[in-house]
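Notes from the pairing session

We agreed to fold both candidates in a single pass and log them together. This is the raw record for the first candidate, unedited. Please don't reformat it; downstream parsing expects exactly this layout.

Candidate A
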Amino acid sequence: MADNETNEAVMISPSVPSPTNEEAPSLEKTEQFLLHQISVIEKRIKEIELAQSTASSPVPPNIQAKLYALRKIQLDIVEREVKFHLKAHDMEVQYQAEFAECHDKIARIVNGLDVPELTESNPAPNDAADQPTGVPEFWLTVLKSSFLEHMIQERDEPVLKQLQDIRVVLVSEPVPGFELLFSFAPNEYFANVVLSKKYFLRCAPNPDAPAKFNGFEIYSCEGCTIDWKDGHNLVEAPGSSFFDFFNPESMTNADYDADFNEAIMECDFQYGYHIKETIIPRAVFLFLKENINLGDENHFTCCCDRCVYIDSLEDLGAHPALDGDDDGDDEPASQDPCSTPNGEEAESESV
């Protein structure tokens, strides 16, 4: 009797179909996702347990008093560092005229206004009529020897060959900052003689994270309007252009992920800092391709460490930071927007 009931129960119980070949990948993906979530939860539990065990360990009152005094001294060190950086910036502003003398000499030679005398160690000159004036494509070569190489597209090169000088002007008032000035010879692309970009600095520790203070940081920037001539607007053409650099607002959008917008601006801050600290003061070395410490020769890590190289703003729609769907699969990141074929950091970029 019992055997009959068992057989009957087996017969009336609904059968569970085995997964088909089409369902298997989906089940495998779900299993991987659940395992990932479990590992995240386990890691968080361990962190909480560690925090609780640390908090439950009583610190003797005399040690607490010492630690309080030590932290107060540490904060005092940070405040003195603020004063030091502000005074150092003021001194740099006052001293920039000394450097300007050298940069004036470089500009005159590069643009053919001064011709150095040949010495015995120089090669014998050819017919003077066959010699170019100045140093052709000096600044284009400098830029392509720097971290900014990836920003330069083939269509940018004709106008960048007309670039005569790059300067930086430091200011202390009304707020600390610096302005980058790109001077161009008359050209068929735009009417501007100078393209400029301002960067604004602050030097104050975050009250919630004073340990992160590292001197000046760039917190904002302001580009300029390029007066493009008809049919020669490089930033309207499909794809990116070096001249997007002068319109930072165009690189962000209210529709984009906030973290992604912040990451893009952090990269822009880093570009400005690189021009100020390396490209301008080391221009001749870059042109000559002498050994300059530009960090890792094979890879330049973006300050935000999250973005990908963007060929055009239309490509942003495909960026994972703008896609709310996350299936848990970690795909390899594309090339960094700050990376170069040859190989500087910013909550905002520290200066």
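Candidate B (folded immediately after A)
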Amino acid sequence: MSKTATKAQAKPAAKAKASATPTASGAKHNGPALSPHLVVRGAAKAIDFYKKAFGAVELIRLPGPDGRLMHAAVQINGARVMLVDEMPEHGALSPLALKGSPVTVHLNVPDVDKAFARAVKAGAITVMPVADMFWGDRYGVLKDPFGHSWSIATHQRDMTAKEIQKAMQSMGGNPCPDA
């Protein structure tokens, strides 16, 4: 094997471009390989909320004939989040219709306290106040007005898996204080 081939193979997959990602149909998609796609009751209002709460940048908004958003996308902290209006007739139900969601969208930010306060000021509800966590992050959880849970964190210190396990065990079975 040549030196050129060895170097090319050694490049990590994470450095691959997000654009032109093949889909199951073989079509190319210009976006990240994985993006949350949120069903929201009131997607237009959700876009406005995400702008205020998280500094989202609107990428696209495609209303259908009845005015509901068939597809929308925003970018938050460099990540794409897709949205669609709730459409029960097509099985697209929001957390409000389902009375909750088992999914939490996680957002890493430079200043969790500032980001959390901004989201609460915009209308989010605190689920777990920001606190220093055993895994090395300063972390909190909130719920947006549309029923989606968001965890927000700032990484404070690197820890080994062994250190995290030990810190978790010292919590006495409650790894999330104030939760």
